[in-house]
Design goal:
248 residues, Arc Repressor Mutant, subunit A, Four Helix Bundle (Hemerythrin (Met), subunit A), elongated, DNA-binding transcription factor activity, TF_FadR/GntR_C
Length: 248
């Protein structure tokens, strides 16, 4: 019985792999124009020969392609290729972290979301989540003291705070934006080393205030500290933007 179950499990996994492989092949052929809209795909019998797979694999692959809007099975007539669906413009895909106006747009949006995230984290954090926030803060400090890039660690700290809300939509939002929402290069461009270090140190002090308020369960304090942090960043970027425009 156990052996039969294991064999069935391996068979299911193998079928799943074959389906994925066939879907990839057919999708590429359709998108490459090998099959034009309105063309009929080869019959199940022919595809089992062409691709050396079972009818079950063929049917599952066609179901996937149908869900993607690439084909349409017609009763008694076969499977026909459709016009490829229009590409979906995903949000935040055109953000350019080297363009100051893009940075400002993201910071305004983050301000609206993360102020409340900090307040919720102060109220809802678990001991494990609080430890994670403190660990990410320490990671950031180590990089600052070593004079290394901090954008990734900065993002990790903000993500840990978002996760401590225990509302999955907050970290999903930050992950959708990505670490490009915590830029550095535009602000530091043209600055000498001492000014860059002072800027990063200021950011660390602001983070420390946020983390302290969250650790103390201070909802209002966490909200105020995050507001100060993000609006301070907005002010700095807006000042750079104005200087840039004045040079045009």
């Amino acid at each position: 019985m156990i052996a039969d179950a294991r064999q069935a499990s391996r068979t299911r996994k193998g079928t799943g792999t074959l389906v994925s492989q066939l879907v990839d092949k057919l999708r590429k052929s359709i998108l490459a124009g090998d099959f034009q809209p309105g063309d009929r795909l080869p019959s199940e019998a022919q595809m089992t020969i062409d691709h050396d797979v079972s009818r079950t694999v063929i049917r599952e692959a066609i179901a996937v392609l149908r869900s993607e809007g690439l084909v349409e099975p017609r009763q008694g007539a076969g499977v026909f290729v459709l016009d490829p669906p229009a590409p979906v413009n995903l949000p935040f895909q055109d953000v350019d972290s080297t363009r100051i106006s893009s940075v400002i747009e993201l910071l305004e949006l983050r301000t609206a979301v993360e102020i409340e995230a900090a307040a919720l984290a102060a109220l809802r954090r678990s001991p494990q989540q609080e430890e994670a926030i403190l660990a990410r803060q320490r990671d950031l400090l180590v990089l600052i003291e070593a004079g290394k890039a901090t954008a990734d660690a900065d993002f990790a700290l903000h993500l840990a705070i978002a996760e401590a809300t225990n509302n999955p939509r907050f970290p999903e939002f930050l992950q959708m934006i990505g670490k490009g929402g915590i830029p550095r290069a535009a602000l530091q461009d043209g600055q000498d080393t001492s000014l860059q270090h002072e800027y990063i140190s200021q950011i660390h002090r602001e983070h420390a205030q946020i983390v302290e308020a969250i650790s103390n369960g201070d909802e209002a304090g966490a909200r105020a500290a995050m507001k100060l942090h993000l609006r301070g960043s907005l002010s700095r970027y807006r000042a750079i933007h104005q200087r840039t425009l004045s040079k045009l």
